Amino acid sequence: MPSRVWVVPGPEWKVVAAELGVVENELPRWLEAEMDDALDPVVQRVRAAAMRVDVQGGPAGHTGLRGRVSSGVGVRKGVSTKSTAYFRIYTEMNKNPERPIPRGMDAAKGWRHPLFGNRDRWYQSRPVRPGWFTDTIGDSGDEIENRLARALDFAINRLG
User: Fold this and answer.
1) What are the backbone angles phi and psi of residue 56, rounded to the nearest 5°?
2) Domain-by-domain residue ranges, the chain?
């Protein structure tokens, strides 16, 4: 016949329960702070990479295009429909006809555009080395992972 065992929690259980509650409530903020700190330098590197893009097959001269692409890089934070937080590095152009340009500058196929607005003459512009956006972010994966691990280690140490 099975016997019953009664466990009477001592004061240490209350301390552990309180610490678990703190970690549960604070962990999302710790993770968000680490992500903010980790993504700031990534965004700066992506902006700098946009300024270094060389383009072939387009008209000569400087139009300020790289600067506009660079200034459109940012981080969007949100919560998905499944209550999962996300951070997205994005780039966007303010003018509707320019919207395909950042993606075109990142891809080997480039983008088509009218020569100085003349819709009778179209040019295909291609980056000399594609990947200014995707490669720069991809190269930062370890750094971002380390920052998240740091927040989790902080939570674990807090529970000690």
Assistant:
1) -110, 155
2) 11-159
Span 39-76, pLDDT tens digits: 999 999 999 999 998 877 555 566 788 899 999 999 99
- Would you state the structure tokens that stand for residue 97, as one six-digit string? 């006809």
9 phi, psi to nearest 5 deg: -65, 140
Read off the tokens for 54.
């060389």
Q: What is the pLDDT of residue 80?
A: 80
- Cβ(126)–Cβ(56) under 8 Å? yes
**What is d(CA 60, CA 64) in angstroms, rounded to the nearest whole number?**
12
Q: For residue 100, with 0-12 CB atoms within 10 Å meaning exposed, 13-18 middle and 19 or more buried, which class applies?
A: middle
Low-confidence spans in the chain with pLDDT less than 50? none
Residues 122/112, Cβ–Cβ less than 8 Å: yes
Which among 31, 93, 44 is positioned nearest to 64, based on CA atoms?
A: 93
pLDDT at position 57, please? 56
